[in-house]
Amino acid sequence: MSVALPSTAAADGHRAMSLAALLATYMQAVNISLPNAALPHIQGTLSMANDEVGWVFSSYIAASAVSMSVTSWLAGRYGRKSVYQFSLAVFALGLVLDTLATSSVQFALARIVQGAASGPLAPLSLAILLEVQPPARHARLSLAWTVCSLLGISSGASIGGWFSEYFGWRSIFYVSLPVTAFIFLAMAFWLREKRAERRQPFDFFGLATFSFGMIGLQVLLDRSERLEWFESREIWIEAVVSVLGFYLFVVHVMTRKEHFLRTALFRDRNLVLSIVISFAVGLVLLPTLALTSPMLEELLNYPVDTTGYMTIPRGVGLVGGVLLMSLVPAQIDYRPFLIGGMALVVYANWLMLGYSPAMDWRAVAEAGFLQGAGLGIVIPALAKAAFGTLDPKLRPEGGALINLSRLYGSTIGIAVVQIFFYGNTQAMHVALAKDLTPYRTAAHVAGSIAKPGLAALNGMVTHQAAVVAIIGQFEILMFAMLVVSPLVLFLRKPRPAS
Protein backbone atom coordinates (compact mmCIF):
# COMPACT_ATOMS: atom_id res chain seq x y z
CA MET A 1 0.00 0.00 0.00
CA SER A 2 1.48 3.36 -0.98
CA VAL A 3 1.58 6.32 1.34
CA ALA A 4 0.73 9.73 -0.09
CA LEU A 5 3.51 12.17 0.61
CA PRO A 6 2.63 15.81 1.24
CA SER A 7 3.25 18.13 -1.64
CA THR A 8 6.21 20.51 -1.59
CA ALA A 9 3.86 23.48 -1.32
CA ALA A 10 2.06 21.96 1.68
CA ALA A 11 5.36 21.14 3.39
CA ASP A 12 6.61 24.68 2.77
CA GLY A 13 3.35 26.04 4.19
CA HIS A 14 3.71 23.93 7.33
CA ARG A 15 7.28 25.11 7.82
CA ALA A 16 6.29 28.75 7.29
CA MET A 17 3.39 28.48 9.75
CA SER A 18 5.59 26.74 12.31
CA LEU A 19 8.20 29.49 12.02
CA ALA A 20 5.52 32.20 12.23
CA ALA A 21 3.91 30.56 15.29
CA LEU A 22 7.25 30.35 17.12
CA LEU A 23 8.04 33.96 16.19
CA ALA A 24 4.64 35.07 17.50
CA THR A 25 5.28 33.24 20.78
CA TYR A 26 8.68 34.90 21.12
CA MET A 27 7.38 38.33 20.11
CA GLN A 28 4.51 38.47 22.58
CA ALA A 29 6.88 37.35 25.37
CA VAL A 30 9.79 39.64 24.49
CA ASN A 31 7.51 42.69 24.54
CA ILE A 32 6.86 42.11 28.25
CA SER A 33 10.45 42.94 29.22
CA LEU A 34 11.56 44.90 26.14
CA PRO A 35 11.15 48.33 27.82
CA ASN A 36 12.98 47.19 30.98
CA ALA A 37 16.50 48.49 30.31
CA ALA A 38 15.12 51.45 28.33
CA LEU A 39 13.17 52.83 31.31
CA PRO A 40 15.49 55.84 31.95
CA HIS A 41 14.93 57.07 28.38
CA ILE A 42 11.18 56.40 28.55
CA GLN A 43 10.86 58.13 31.92
CA GLY A 44 12.76 61.19 30.70
CA THR A 45 10.69 61.58 27.54
CA LEU A 46 7.27 60.95 29.10
CA SER A 47 7.95 62.63 32.49
CA MET A 48 7.09 59.32 34.14
CA ALA A 49 7.32 59.29 37.94
CA ASN A 50 9.22 56.48 39.64
CA ASP A 51 6.05 54.99 41.11
CA GLU A 52 4.53 54.79 37.60
CA VAL A 53 7.29 52.54 36.26
CA GLY A 54 5.39 49.41 37.29
CA TRP A 55 2.62 50.34 34.85
CA VAL A 56 4.95 49.54 31.94
CA PHE A 57 4.85 45.86 32.93
CA SER A 58 1.61 45.38 34.88
CA SER A 59 -0.64 47.00 32.24
CA TYR A 60 0.67 44.64 29.54
CA ILE A 61 0.60 41.50 31.69
CA ALA A 62 -2.84 42.10 33.26
CA ALA A 63 -4.46 42.78 29.88
CA SER A 64 -2.78 39.71 28.41
CA ALA A 65 -4.04 37.49 31.24
CA VAL A 66 -7.65 38.62 30.76
CA SER A 67 -7.68 38.09 26.97
CA MET A 68 -5.85 34.75 27.28
CA SER A 69 -8.71 33.45 29.45
CA VAL A 70 -11.26 33.93 26.69
CA THR A 71 -9.07 32.81 23.76
CA SER A 72 -10.52 29.31 23.43
CA TRP A 73 -14.10 30.59 23.28
CA LEU A 74 -13.22 33.34 20.80
CA ALA A 75 -11.46 30.87 18.49
CA GLY A 76 -14.42 28.51 18.60
CA ARG A 77 -16.98 31.28 18.06
CA TYR A 78 -15.30 33.45 15.41
CA GLY A 79 -12.67 31.12 13.99
CA ARG A 80 -9.06 30.52 14.94
CA LYS A 81 -7.61 32.32 11.92
CA SER A 82 -9.85 35.37 12.34
CA VAL A 83 -8.96 35.75 16.02
CA TYR A 84 -5.25 35.24 15.30
CA GLN A 85 -5.21 37.80 12.47
CA PHE A 86 -7.24 40.31 14.47
CA SER A 87 -4.91 39.93 17.45
CA LEU A 88 -1.86 40.56 15.25
CA ALA A 89 -3.48 43.68 13.76
CA VAL A 90 -4.36 45.08 17.20
CA PHE A 91 -0.87 44.15 18.46
CA ALA A 92 0.64 46.22 15.63
CA LEU A 93 -1.72 49.08 16.54
CA GLY A 94 -0.50 48.86 20.14
CA LEU A 95 3.13 49.05 18.97
CA VAL A 96 2.38 52.23 17.02
CA LEU A 97 0.48 53.75 19.96
CA ASP A 98 3.50 53.03 22.20
CA THR A 99 5.69 55.15 19.94
CA LEU A 100 3.12 57.98 19.75
CA ALA A 101 2.58 58.28 23.50
CA THR A 102 3.45 61.66 25.02
CA SER A 103 2.56 60.95 28.65
CA SER A 104 2.78 58.08 31.09
CA VAL A 105 -1.01 57.55 31.01
CA GLN A 106 -1.04 57.33 27.20
CA PHE A 107 1.86 54.89 27.31
CA ALA A 108 0.10 52.69 29.88
CA LEU A 109 -3.08 52.67 27.75
CA ALA A 110 -1.04 51.71 24.68
CA ARG A 111 0.55 48.87 26.64
CA ILE A 112 -2.95 47.68 27.64
CA VAL A 113 -3.94 47.53 23.95
CA GLN A 114 -0.73 45.70 23.11
CA GLY A 115 -1.08 43.28 26.04
CA ALA A 116 -4.74 42.48 25.31
CA ALA A 117 -3.79 41.60 21.73
CA SER A 118 -0.87 39.43 22.88
CA GLY A 119 -3.00 37.19 25.10
CA PRO A 120 -4.40 34.92 22.33
CA LEU A 121 -1.12 34.69 20.38
CA ALA A 122 0.77 32.17 22.56
CA PRO A 123 -2.02 29.56 23.10
CA LEU A 124 -3.18 29.75 19.47
CA SER A 125 0.41 29.49 18.25
CA LEU A 126 0.86 26.27 20.21
CA ALA A 127 -2.40 24.88 18.84
CA ILE A 128 -1.27 25.69 15.28
CA LEU A 129 2.13 24.08 15.85
CA LEU A 130 0.60 20.85 17.10
CA GLU A 131 -1.85 20.73 14.21
CA VAL A 132 0.45 21.36 11.25
CA GLN A 133 3.23 19.02 12.41
CA PRO A 134 3.02 15.22 12.86
CA PRO A 135 2.53 13.78 16.38
CA ALA A 136 6.10 12.45 16.43
CA ARG A 137 7.34 16.03 16.60
CA HIS A 138 4.88 17.31 19.21
CA ALA A 139 7.21 16.87 22.18
CA ARG A 140 10.00 18.84 20.47
CA LEU A 141 7.58 21.51 19.29
CA SER A 142 6.16 21.95 22.79
CA LEU A 143 9.72 22.32 24.07
CA ALA A 144 10.55 24.84 21.32
CA TRP A 145 7.38 26.80 22.18
CA THR A 146 8.34 26.90 25.88
CA VAL A 147 11.92 27.94 25.06
CA CYS A 148 10.70 30.75 22.76
CA SER A 149 8.38 32.06 25.48
CA LEU A 150 11.02 32.04 28.23
CA LEU A 151 13.76 33.29 25.90
CA GLY A 152 11.53 36.20 24.96
CA ILE A 153 11.02 37.24 28.58
CA SER A 154 14.70 36.86 29.45
CA SER A 155 16.19 38.53 26.34
CA GLY A 156 13.88 41.52 26.17
CA ALA A 157 15.98 43.72 28.47
CA SER A 158 19.21 43.20 26.50
CA ILE A 159 17.55 43.84 23.12
CA GLY A 160 15.63 46.87 24.41
CA GLY A 161 18.72 48.32 26.09
CA TRP A 162 20.80 48.10 22.91
CA PHE A 163 18.15 49.55 20.59
CA SER A 164 17.21 52.37 22.98
CA GLU A 165 20.85 53.38 23.50
CA TYR A 166 21.71 53.66 19.79
CA PHE A 167 18.37 54.28 18.04
CA GLY A 168 16.09 55.78 20.72
CA TRP A 169 13.56 54.01 22.92
CA ARG A 170 10.79 54.12 20.31
CA SER A 171 12.84 51.82 18.08
CA ILE A 172 12.24 48.92 20.49
CA PHE A 173 8.61 48.91 19.34
CA TYR A 174 9.27 49.66 15.67
CA VAL A 175 11.45 46.55 15.39
CA SER A 176 8.45 44.29 16.12
CA LEU A 177 6.36 45.71 13.27
CA PRO A 178 8.05 43.82 10.37
CA VAL A 179 7.97 40.62 12.45
CA THR A 180 4.23 41.12 13.02
CA ALA A 181 3.73 41.73 9.29
CA PHE A 182 5.55 38.49 8.38
CA ILE A 183 3.48 36.44 10.84
CA PHE A 184 0.26 38.05 9.57
CA LEU A 185 1.07 37.30 5.91
CA ALA A 186 2.25 33.74 6.59
CA MET A 187 -0.94 32.89 8.45
CA ALA A 188 -3.13 34.73 5.92
CA PHE A 189 -1.62 32.70 3.07
CA TRP A 190 -1.39 29.19 4.59
CA LEU A 191 -3.52 28.89 7.74
CA ARG A 192 -6.97 27.41 7.23
CA GLU A 193 -9.95 28.70 9.15
CA LYS A 194 -11.25 26.47 11.91
CA ARG A 195 -14.31 26.91 14.11
CA ALA A 196 -15.92 24.76 16.75
CA GLU A 197 -18.61 22.49 15.31
CA ARG A 198 -20.82 23.28 18.27
CA ARG A 199 -20.73 26.67 19.94
CA GLN A 200 -19.76 26.29 23.56
CA PRO A 201 -21.20 28.71 26.15
CA PHE A 202 -18.72 30.83 28.03
CA ASP A 203 -18.96 32.04 31.60
CA PHE A 204 -18.52 35.77 31.03
CA PHE A 205 -19.88 36.64 34.46
CA GLY A 206 -17.23 34.50 36.15
CA LEU A 207 -14.44 35.97 34.03
CA ALA A 208 -15.72 39.53 34.57
CA THR A 209 -15.93 39.23 38.36
CA PHE A 210 -12.51 37.56 38.63
CA SER A 211 -10.98 40.19 36.33
CA PHE A 212 -12.54 43.05 38.31
CA GLY A 213 -11.11 41.56 41.49
CA MET A 214 -7.60 41.23 40.06
CA ILE A 215 -7.58 44.58 38.22
CA GLY A 216 -8.94 46.41 41.26
CA LEU A 217 -6.21 44.87 43.41
CA GLN A 218 -3.55 45.70 40.82
CA VAL A 219 -4.56 49.36 40.48
CA LEU A 220 -4.84 49.66 44.27
CA LEU A 221 -1.28 48.42 44.71
CA ASP A 222 0.04 50.58 41.88
CA ARG A 223 -1.58 53.80 43.13
CA SER A 224 -1.63 53.38 46.90
CA GLU A 225 1.87 54.70 47.67
CA ARG A 226 1.30 57.92 45.71
CA LEU A 227 -2.18 58.51 47.18
CA GLU A 228 -1.32 57.72 50.83
CA TRP A 229 -3.28 54.47 50.85
CA PHE A 230 -6.74 54.74 52.41
CA GLU A 231 -6.47 58.48 52.91
CA SER A 232 -7.63 58.66 49.27
CA ARG A 233 -11.19 58.11 48.05
CA GLU A 234 -9.81 56.52 44.87
CA ILE A 235 -8.05 53.80 46.87
CA TRP A 236 -11.29 53.05 48.74
CA ILE A 237 -13.15 52.70 45.42
CA GLU A 238 -10.50 50.34 44.03
CA ALA A 239 -10.53 48.28 47.23
CA VAL A 240 -14.32 47.96 47.12
CA VAL A 241 -14.22 46.95 43.43
CA SER A 242 -11.58 44.31 44.17
CA VAL A 243 -13.31 42.83 47.22
CA LEU A 244 -16.72 42.85 45.51
CA GLY A 245 -15.28 41.22 42.39
CA PHE A 246 -13.63 38.40 44.32
CA TYR A 247 -16.72 37.93 46.53
CA LEU A 248 -19.06 37.62 43.53
CA PHE A 249 -16.62 35.25 41.84
CA VAL A 250 -16.43 32.94 44.87
CA VAL A 251 -20.23 32.95 45.25
CA HIS A 252 -20.57 32.26 41.52
CA VAL A 253 -18.18 29.30 41.69
CA MET A 254 -19.90 27.85 44.76
CA THR A 255 -23.41 28.13 43.34
CA ARG A 256 -22.93 27.07 39.71
CA LYS A 257 -21.82 23.73 38.35
CA GLU A 258 -20.23 25.13 35.19
CA HIS A 259 -17.97 28.18 35.01
CA PHE A 260 -14.87 29.21 33.15
CA LEU A 261 -12.69 27.49 35.78
CA ARG A 262 -14.12 23.98 36.04
CA THR A 263 -14.47 22.64 39.58
CA ALA A 264 -12.84 19.37 38.54
CA LEU A 265 -9.54 21.23 38.13
CA PHE A 266 -9.39 22.00 41.83
CA ARG A 267 -9.97 18.40 42.89
CA ASP A 268 -6.47 17.52 41.74
CA ARG A 269 -4.04 18.23 44.59
CA ASN A 270 -0.98 18.42 42.34
CA LEU A 271 -2.59 21.03 40.08
CA VAL A 272 -3.66 23.23 43.01
CA LEU A 273 -0.21 23.10 44.60
CA SER A 274 1.44 23.74 41.20
CA ILE A 275 -0.72 26.84 40.75
CA VAL A 276 0.37 28.19 44.15
CA ILE A 277 4.06 27.50 43.44
CA SER A 278 3.69 28.96 39.94
CA PHE A 279 2.39 32.18 41.48
CA ALA A 280 5.56 32.36 43.59
CA VAL A 281 7.66 31.69 40.46
CA GLY A 282 5.94 34.67 38.83
CA LEU A 283 6.79 36.76 41.89
CA VAL A 284 10.47 36.09 41.15
CA LEU A 285 10.55 35.87 37.34
CA LEU A 286 9.73 39.45 36.28
CA PRO A 287 10.05 41.49 39.50
CA THR A 288 13.75 40.57 39.58
CA LEU A 289 14.17 42.24 36.18
CA ALA A 290 12.07 45.19 37.31
CA LEU A 291 14.44 45.70 40.27
CA THR A 292 17.81 44.88 38.67
CA SER A 293 17.73 47.29 35.72
CA PRO A 294 16.87 50.44 37.75
CA MET A 295 19.50 49.46 40.33
CA LEU A 296 22.21 49.13 37.67
CA GLU A 297 21.23 52.26 35.74
CA GLU A 298 20.17 54.76 38.38
CA LEU A 299 22.14 53.66 41.44
CA LEU A 300 25.29 52.10 39.97
CA ASN A 301 25.43 54.36 36.86
CA TYR A 302 25.75 51.61 34.23
CA PRO A 303 24.87 52.62 30.63
CA VAL A 304 21.52 51.40 29.32
CA ASP A 305 23.01 48.97 26.80
CA THR A 306 25.41 47.50 29.40
CA THR A 307 22.49 46.97 31.77
CA GLY A 308 20.76 44.97 29.06
CA TYR A 309 23.84 42.84 28.44
CA MET A 310 24.06 42.00 32.15
CA THR A 311 20.68 40.24 31.96
CA ILE A 312 21.96 37.77 29.33
CA PRO A 313 23.45 35.25 31.83
CA ARG A 314 20.04 34.98 33.50
CA GLY A 315 18.44 34.17 30.15
CA VAL A 316 21.13 31.62 29.36
CA GLY A 317 20.55 29.90 32.71
CA LEU A 318 16.77 29.97 32.22
CA VAL A 319 16.82 28.37 28.77
CA GLY A 320 19.61 25.97 29.81
CA GLY A 321 17.53 24.75 32.76
CA VAL A 322 14.52 24.08 30.50
CA LEU A 323 16.66 22.18 27.98
CA LEU A 324 18.27 20.17 30.77
CA MET A 325 14.86 19.13 32.10
CA SER A 326 13.82 18.02 28.60
CA LEU A 327 16.54 15.36 28.72
CA VAL A 328 15.23 13.82 31.95
CA PRO A 329 13.31 10.57 31.23
CA ALA A 330 9.59 10.75 31.97
CA GLN A 331 9.70 7.87 34.45
CA ILE A 332 12.13 9.66 36.80
CA ASP A 333 10.52 11.40 39.77
CA TYR A 334 10.35 15.16 39.14
CA ARG A 335 10.24 16.19 42.81
CA PRO A 336 14.01 16.16 43.50
CA PHE A 337 14.50 18.44 40.49
CA LEU A 338 11.77 20.74 41.75
CA ILE A 339 13.43 20.96 45.18
CA GLY A 340 16.86 21.52 43.58
CA GLY A 341 15.54 24.26 41.28
CA MET A 342 13.83 26.10 44.13
CA ALA A 343 16.99 25.82 46.23
CA LEU A 344 18.98 27.40 43.37
CA VAL A 345 16.50 30.31 43.18
CA VAL A 346 16.68 30.88 46.94
CA TYR A 347 20.49 30.74 46.90
CA ALA A 348 20.65 33.18 43.97
CA ASN A 349 18.41 35.66 45.80
CA TRP A 350 20.57 35.25 48.89
CA LEU A 351 23.59 36.23 46.76
CA MET A 352 21.65 39.32 45.62
CA LEU A 353 21.48 40.46 49.24
CA GLY A 354 25.24 41.03 48.96
CA TYR A 355 24.91 43.58 46.16
CA SER A 356 26.67 46.89 46.88
CA PRO A 357 27.81 50.04 45.02
CA ALA A 358 31.36 48.65 45.10
CA MET A 359 30.57 45.43 43.17
CA ASP A 360 31.36 44.76 39.50
CA TRP A 361 29.32 42.99 36.81
CA ARG A 362 30.39 39.49 37.92
CA ALA A 363 28.17 39.48 41.01
CA VAL A 364 25.08 40.35 38.94
CA ALA A 365 25.96 37.81 36.23
CA GLU A 366 26.56 35.00 38.71
CA ALA A 367 23.39 35.55 40.73
CA GLY A 368 21.34 36.05 37.57
CA PHE A 369 22.64 32.86 35.96
CA LEU A 370 21.91 30.76 39.06
CA GLN A 371 18.44 32.23 39.46
CA GLY A 372 17.68 31.67 35.77
CA ALA A 373 18.90 28.07 35.94
CA GLY A 374 16.73 27.43 39.00
CA LEU A 375 13.64 28.89 37.35
CA GLY A 376 14.38 26.95 34.17
CA ILE A 377 14.30 23.72 36.19
CA VAL A 378 11.26 24.64 38.28
CA ILE A 379 8.92 25.68 35.43
CA PRO A 380 8.97 22.37 33.46
CA ALA A 381 9.09 20.35 36.70
CA LEU A 382 5.88 22.12 37.78
CA ALA A 383 4.24 21.16 34.49
CA LYS A 384 5.17 17.52 35.13
CA ALA A 385 3.81 17.79 38.66
CA ALA A 386 0.48 19.17 37.50
CA PHE A 387 -0.04 16.94 34.47
CA GLY A 388 1.28 13.76 36.11
CA THR A 389 -1.97 13.24 38.02
CA LEU A 390 -4.42 15.41 36.03
CA ASP A 391 -7.10 13.96 33.76
CA PRO A 392 -5.80 14.37 30.15
CA LYS A 393 -9.10 16.05 29.18
CA LEU A 394 -8.37 18.83 31.69
CA ARG A 395 -4.74 19.42 30.72
CA PRO A 396 -5.33 22.35 28.31
CA GLU A 397 -7.29 24.24 30.97
CA GLY A 398 -4.82 23.23 33.67
CA GLY A 399 -1.88 24.49 31.62
CA ALA A 400 -3.67 27.78 30.96
CA LEU A 401 -4.42 28.14 34.68
CA ILE A 402 -0.74 27.62 35.59
CA ASN A 403 0.32 30.23 33.02
CA LEU A 404 -2.28 32.69 34.33
CA SER A 405 -1.05 32.12 37.87
CA ARG A 406 2.51 32.89 36.81
CA LEU A 407 1.40 36.03 34.95
CA TYR A 408 -0.64 37.33 37.88
CA GLY A 409 2.24 36.51 40.21
CA SER A 410 4.51 38.68 38.10
CA THR A 411 2.18 41.66 37.87
CA ILE A 412 1.27 41.56 41.60
CA GLY A 413 4.93 41.03 42.48
CA ILE A 414 6.04 44.10 40.53
CA ALA A 415 3.48 46.24 42.36
CA VAL A 416 4.48 44.82 45.77
CA VAL A 417 8.23 45.39 45.32
CA GLN A 418 7.54 48.95 44.12
CA ILE A 419 5.51 49.66 47.26
CA PHE A 420 8.15 48.27 49.61
CA PHE A 421 10.97 49.93 47.69
CA TYR A 422 9.65 53.47 48.06
CA GLY A 423 8.50 52.91 51.63
CA ASN A 424 11.86 51.44 52.65
CA THR A 425 13.77 54.19 50.81
CA GLN A 426 12.01 56.83 52.90
CA ALA A 427 12.56 54.88 56.11
CA MET A 428 16.26 54.35 55.37
CA HIS A 429 16.67 58.02 54.42
CA VAL A 430 15.34 59.06 57.82
CA ALA A 431 17.51 56.46 59.59
CA LEU A 432 20.68 57.64 57.84
CA ALA A 433 19.98 61.37 57.94
CA LYS A 434 19.33 61.50 61.68
CA ASP A 435 22.93 60.43 62.37
CA LEU A 436 24.56 63.19 60.32
CA THR A 437 25.04 65.50 63.33
CA PRO A 438 26.00 65.01 66.93
CA TYR A 439 22.49 66.12 67.87
CA ARG A 440 20.95 63.34 65.69
CA THR A 441 18.61 65.73 63.87
CA ALA A 442 18.95 66.52 60.18
CA ALA A 443 17.58 70.03 60.79
CA HIS A 444 20.85 71.15 62.45
CA VAL A 445 22.82 70.38 59.29
CA ALA A 446 21.35 73.43 57.56
CA GLY A 447 23.06 75.74 59.95
CA SER A 448 26.60 74.61 59.21
CA ILE A 449 26.51 73.59 55.53
CA ALA A 450 25.70 75.80 52.55
CA LYS A 451 22.69 74.96 50.41
CA PRO A 452 24.70 73.35 47.53
CA GLY A 453 26.60 71.20 50.01
CA LEU A 454 23.38 70.30 51.81
CA ALA A 455 21.79 69.26 48.52
CA ALA A 456 24.81 67.09 47.65
CA LEU A 457 24.74 65.52 51.11
CA ASN A 458 21.03 64.81 50.79
CA GLY A 459 21.66 63.23 47.38
CA MET A 460 24.28 60.92 48.86
CA VAL A 461 21.95 59.88 51.67
CA THR A 462 19.08 59.26 49.23
CA HIS A 463 21.37 57.20 47.01
CA GLN A 464 22.52 55.02 49.91
CA ALA A 465 18.95 54.64 51.18
CA ALA A 466 17.79 53.53 47.72
CA VAL A 467 20.58 50.95 47.45
CA VAL A 468 19.70 49.46 50.84
CA ALA A 469 15.98 49.49 50.02
CA ILE A 470 16.31 47.83 46.62
CA ILE A 471 18.50 45.06 48.02
CA GLY A 472 15.84 44.49 50.68
CA GLN A 473 13.32 43.69 47.94
CA PHE A 474 15.42 40.70 46.83
CA GLU A 475 14.91 39.41 50.35
CA ILE A 476 11.13 39.54 49.87
CA LEU A 477 11.46 37.51 46.65
CA MET A 478 13.71 35.00 48.41
CA PHE A 479 11.18 34.48 51.22
CA ALA A 480 8.34 34.11 48.68
CA MET A 481 10.12 31.07 47.25
CA LEU A 482 11.05 29.77 50.71
CA VAL A 483 7.44 29.91 51.90
CA VAL A 484 6.10 27.73 49.07
CA SER A 485 9.04 25.27 49.09
CA PRO A 486 7.47 22.91 51.70
CA LEU A 487 4.49 22.39 49.37
CA VAL A 488 6.68 20.09 47.25
CA LEU A 489 6.45 17.51 50.05
CA PHE A 490 2.67 17.26 49.48
CA LEU A 491 2.88 16.56 45.75
CA ARG A 492 1.86 13.07 44.68
CA LYS A 493 3.96 10.87 42.43
CA PRO A 494 2.82 10.97 38.79
CA ARG A 495 0.68 8.17 37.47
CA PRO A 496 2.45 5.59 35.27
CA ALA A 497 2.26 6.53 31.59
CA SER A 498 -0.21 4.41 29.66
Automatic annotation (TrEMBL):
<dbReference type="InterPro" id="IPR020846">
    <property type="entry name" value="MFS_dom"/>
</dbReference>
<keyword id="KW-0472">Membrane</keyword>
<dbReference type="Pfam" id="PF07690">
    <property type="entry name" value="MFS_1"/>
</dbReference>
<feature type="transmembrane region" description="Helical">
    <location>
        <begin position="53"/>
        <end position="76"/>
    </location>
</feature>
<dbReference type="GO" id="GO:0022857">
    <property type="term" value="F:transmembrane transporter activity"/>
</dbReference>
<dbReference type="InterPro" id="IPR036259">
    <property type="entry name" value="MFS_trans_sf"/>
</dbReference>
<feature type="transmembrane region" description="Helical">
    <location>
        <begin position="337"/>
        <end position="356"/>
    </location>
</feature>
<feature type="transmembrane region" description="Helical">
    <location>
        <begin position="108"/>
        <end position="130"/>
    </location>
</feature>
<keyword id="KW-1133">Transmembrane helix</keyword>
<feature type="transmembrane region" description="Helical">
    <location>
        <begin position="368"/>
        <end position="387"/>
    </location>
</feature>
<feature type="transmembrane region" description="Helical">
    <location>
        <begin position="271"/>
        <end position="291"/>
    </location>
</feature>
<dbReference type="InterPro" id="IPR011701">
    <property type="entry name" value="MFS"/>
</dbReference>
<feature type="domain" description="Major facilitator superfamily (MFS) profile">
    <location>
        <begin position="17"/>
        <end position="497"/>
    </location>
</feature>
<feature type="transmembrane region" description="Helical">
    <location>
        <begin position="311"/>
        <end position="330"/>
    </location>
</feature>
<keyword id="KW-0812">Transmembrane</keyword>
<feature type="transmembrane region" description="Helical">
    <location>
        <begin position="407"/>
        <end position="423"/>
    </location>
</feature>
<feature type="transmembrane region" description="Helical">
    <location>
        <begin position="233"/>
        <end position="250"/>
    </location>
</feature>
<feature type="transmembrane region" description="Helical">
    <location>
        <begin position="169"/>
        <end position="190"/>
    </location>
</feature>
<dbReference type="GO" id="GO:0005886">
    <property type="term" value="C:plasma membrane"/>
</dbReference>
<feature type="transmembrane region" description="Helical">
    <location>
        <begin position="202"/>
        <end position="221"/>
    </location>
</feature>
<feature type="transmembrane region" description="Helical">
    <location>
        <begin position="83"/>
        <end position="102"/>
    </location>
</feature>
<feature type="transmembrane region" description="Helical">
    <location>
        <begin position="466"/>
        <end position="491"/>
    </location>
</feature>
<feature type="transmembrane region" description="Helical">
    <location>
        <begin position="142"/>
        <end position="163"/>
    </location>
</feature>
<protein>
    <submittedName>
        <fullName>MFS transporter</fullName>
    </submittedName>
</protein>
